[in-house]
């Protein structure tokens, strides 16, 4: 029985009459149902003991609590645990047992108090924090709302405007700011934290310090009319920024009820809304993303072998362009020594200048001190040859997408780098076996595919060939973690996972535009669906040169299922190249603001005549729903191929890759999760119908046909007969 429990609390009563309750549930002391049950028992025992005057709650190993353990939702959904009655945790336990207790409690916060962790602390009668400890309510990111009284207590402690900012942005505050806001009562050094909390608790018990029930405070709440205006503005902003999400608005409802009708009504509304949001599709999607993101580092046959990551101290980067300089920035920000190699002094100066500019933008925004800037820049050294590569632990090649150039570089690396050195390429589409075919040590070759801008985008595709050693992958997973990226391990093929899955995205948009669908309507529909921008705006952003180079790789490798459009080549002939030239599918002003260009029709008509394509009246009148289906179902089809070929370890890895690499909306759960919510049978029937009308670009792959014909989920693990597919 003990092996199935998740976490616990312990209680020790000191000679001073203070009961210290410690939350123990590594790594972040999350509040599982078991922890909450234990906590309630300890509390009841402390309240019943005559030798206990006051209570202190703390967390083990320097962390108060990272919040409610959301795997608890899964336990309830699977029927493994009975769902607690609405309001049991927030009202019966935290409010009526803890906050209303006749003995005072103090939270001793170290490290972090997030989500349910902060809500537990706010139900205590005071909060003492160690410097730098983070307090926040990030629940909306997970599709849920603060459900342990946070919608009621935070506005009463820090004021309505600041509380809404913290809740709606999910951004935590440090202890020092928390203290100035009134969230934290005192900030003390970590070594003194427990003793200070004990003294504070005894002072409350002895009436030497105020006994404050947060939920009853009103001094920080604005007058009713002003509160309604603040909430109205918050709603308008939320609708604008997250039009497809209901739970932030439901959260604001709970806040409003508490202000208008009092804290008890607010707590009841919060509990009611909390039980509703867990059933929203967006919530299920966001919770799936939360667990999938943490699952990308589990790679069967690699991370289960007990291999320990080797220490990587020095990294060399070849190429100081946008990608190379972005990768260098990410590495030096995480304290790696970096050598940046270029072909001449001018390019090297430009590369180092880009890194400097990346860091200076942090200084300007107040996210980095001048001293830290100088210390970070000192980790970067420039080079024009391979002499300084003798002691590097890893090289990342980030030159232009030219096979023979990359082959030459890898042949050189073989001569100049030490035997243990990892040889990585940041190629986005070229097969790694081709890049490294003139290199002797095939087991050291790996793809480290960053997304632009590399120091900002959160994804790192780790690409393994059939020869890449598990040790190299373990090393790169560790580097990914240290530079704060989410790594996804994928197999070697043209485009790897992200670019391969999404190559039909732009091609489908071009296909529709050539046959009569308004390109601006396509972009609008796709943006409404939740993508950061539509496919035409994306082409402008990356530039037509990159768009054509990438498309060429897919046309060469998958000729039977690519759509060859002439729209971009014809625009290039007229010196249009996208945002960089201020003319692409859109026109751009000085501030890079895009506006539609009536001239585009001319290029589409010309492309139509060159390709011999005729207008299709049906495609000229597509609804937004049909546009989304015709744009994204081909992406689902390619994702199914990637999964079936074993390029990805699991479907959830493709979900994370699409979200973090292409901006697929997380509240839809990722491409495969979304496809399953639409239904494999429906997707298969649509693709099948379109392929009969419009050709092989839409033809469902064998995997999708097999699962779709049975209505089976596309994300379900592959059978052992993977090779058959």
TrEMBL record:
Keywords recorded for this protein, A-Z: Fatty acid metabolism, Isomerase, Lipid metabolism, Lyase, Multifunctional enzyme, NAD, Oxidoreductase, Peroxisome
Primary location class: other
Signal peptide: none
Catalysed conversion reaction: a (3S)-3-hydroxyacyl-CoA = a (2E)-enoyl-CoA + H2O; a (3E)-enoyl-CoA = a 4-saturated (2E)-enoyl-CoA; (3S)-3-hydroxybutanoyl-CoA = (3R)-3-hydroxybutanoyl-CoA; a (3Z)-enoyl-CoA = a 4-saturated (2E)-enoyl-CoA
InterPro entries found in the cross-reference section: 3-OHacyl-CoA_DH_CS (IPR006180), 3-OHacyl-CoA_DH_NAD-bd (IPR006176), 3HC_DH_C (IPR006108), 6-PGluconate_DH-like_C_sf (IPR008927), ClpP/crotonase-like_dom_sf (IPR029045), Enoyl-CoA_hyd/isom_CS (IPR018376), Enoyl-CoA_hydra/iso (IPR001753), NAD(P)-bd_dom_sf (IPR036291)
3-hydroxyacyl-CoA dehydrogenase NAD binding domain segment(s): 314-492
Domain 3-hydroxyacyl-CoA dehydrogenase C-terminal, residue spans: 495-588
Pathway where this protein functions: Lipid metabolism; fatty acid beta-oxidation
Cell location: Peroxisome
SUPFAM superfamilies in alphabetical order: 6-phosphogluconate dehydrogenase C-terminal domain-like, ClpP/crotonase, NAD(P)-binding Rossmann-fold domains
Family from the record: Belongs to the enoyl-CoA hydratase/isomerase family. In the N-terminal section; belongs to the enoyl-CoA hydratase/isomerase family.
Protein name: 3-hydroxyacyl-CoA dehydrogenase
Biological source species: Brassica cretica (Mustard)
């Amino acid at each position: 029985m003990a092996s199935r429990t998740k976490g616990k609390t312990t209680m020790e009563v000191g000679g001073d009459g203070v009961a210290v309750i410690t939350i123990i549930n590594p790594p972040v002391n999350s509040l599982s149902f078991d922890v909450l049950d234990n906590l309630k028992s300890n509390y009841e025992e402390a309240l019943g003991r005559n030798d206990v005057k006051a209570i202190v709650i703390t967390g083990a190993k320097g962390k108060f609590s990272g919040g409610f353990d959301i795997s608890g939702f899964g336990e309830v959904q699977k029927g493994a645990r009975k769902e607690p009655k609405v309001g049991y945790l927030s009202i019966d336990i935290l409010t009526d047992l803890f906050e209303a207790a006749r003995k005072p409690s103090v939270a001793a916060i170290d490290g972090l108090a997030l989500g349910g962790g902060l809500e537990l602390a706010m139900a205590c009668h005071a909060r003492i924090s160690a410097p730098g400890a983070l307090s926040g309510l990030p629940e909306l990111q997970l599709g849920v709302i603060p459900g342990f009284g946070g919608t009621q207590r935070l506005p009463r402690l820090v004021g309505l405007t600041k509380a809404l900012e913290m809740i709606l942005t999910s951004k935590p505050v440090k202890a020092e700011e928390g203290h100035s806001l009134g969230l934290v009562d005192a900030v003390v050094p970590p070594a003194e934290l427990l003793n200070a909390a004990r003294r504070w608790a005894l002072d409350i018990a002895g009436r030497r310090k105020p006994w404050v029930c947060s939920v009853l405070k009103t001094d920080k709440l604005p007058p009713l009319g002003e509160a309604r205006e603040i909430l109205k503005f918050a709603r308008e902003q939320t609708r604008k920024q997250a039009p497809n999400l209901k739970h932030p608005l439901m959260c604001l409802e709970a806040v409003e009820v508490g202000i208008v009708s009092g804290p008890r009504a607010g707590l009841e509304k919060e509990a009611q809304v909390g039980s509703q949001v867990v059933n929203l599709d967006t919530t299920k999607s966001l919770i799936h993303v939360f667990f999938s993101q943490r699952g990308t580092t589990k790679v069967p046959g690699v991370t289960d072998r007990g291999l320990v990551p080797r220490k990587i101290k020095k990294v060399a980067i070849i190429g100081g362009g946008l990608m190379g300089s972005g990768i260098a920035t990410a590495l030096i920000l995480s304290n790696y020594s970096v050598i940046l190699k270029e072909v001449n002094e001018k390019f090297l100066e430009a590369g180092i200048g880009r890194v400097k500019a990346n860091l200076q933008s942090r200084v300007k925004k107040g996210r980095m001190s001048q001293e830290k800037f100088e210390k970070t820049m000192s980790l970067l050294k420039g080079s024009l040859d391979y002499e300084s590569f003798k002691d590097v632990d890893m090289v990342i090649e980030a030159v232009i997408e030219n096979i023979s150039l990359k082959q030459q570089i890898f042949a050189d690396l073989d001569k100049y780098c030490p035997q243990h050195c990892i040889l990585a390429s940041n190629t986005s589409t070229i097969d790694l076996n081709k890049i490294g075919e003139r290199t002797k040590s095939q087991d050291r070759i790996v793809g480290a595919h960053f997304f632009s801008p590399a120091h900002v985008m959160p994804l790192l595709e780790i690409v393994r060939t059939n020869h890449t050693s598990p040790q190299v992958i373990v090393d790169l997973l560790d580097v990914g973690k240290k530079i704060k990226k989410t790594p996804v391990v994928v197999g070697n093929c043209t485009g790897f996972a992200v670019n391969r899955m999404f190559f039909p995205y732009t091609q489908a948009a071009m296909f529709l535009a050539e046959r009569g669908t308004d390109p601006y309507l396509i972009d609008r529909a796709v943006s409404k669906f939740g993508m950061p921008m539509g496919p035409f705006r994306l082409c402008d952003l990356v530039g037509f040169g990159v768009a054509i180079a990438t498309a060429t790789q897919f046309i060469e490798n998958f000729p039977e299922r690519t759509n060859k459009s002439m729209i971009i080549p014809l625009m290039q002939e007229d010196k249009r190249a996208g945002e960089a030239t201020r003319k692409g599918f859109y026109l751009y002003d000085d501030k890079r603001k895009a506006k539609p260009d009536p001239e585009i029709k001319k290029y589409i008509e010309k492309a139509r005549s060159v390709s011999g394509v005729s207008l299709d009246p049906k495609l000229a009148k597509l609804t937004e729903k049909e546009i989304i289906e015709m744009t994204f179902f081909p992406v689902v089809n390619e994702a199914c191929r990637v999964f079936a070929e074993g390029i990805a370890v699991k479907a959830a890895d493709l979900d994370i890759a699409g979200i973090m690499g292409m901006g697929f909306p997380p509240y839809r759960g990722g491409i495969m999760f979304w496809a399953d919510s639409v239904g494999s049978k429906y997707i298969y029937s649509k693709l099948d119908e379109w392929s009969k009308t419009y050709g092989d670009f839409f033809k469902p792959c064998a995997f999708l046909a097999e699962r779709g014909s049975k209505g089976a989920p596309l994300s379900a693990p592959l059978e052992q007969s993977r090779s058959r597919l």
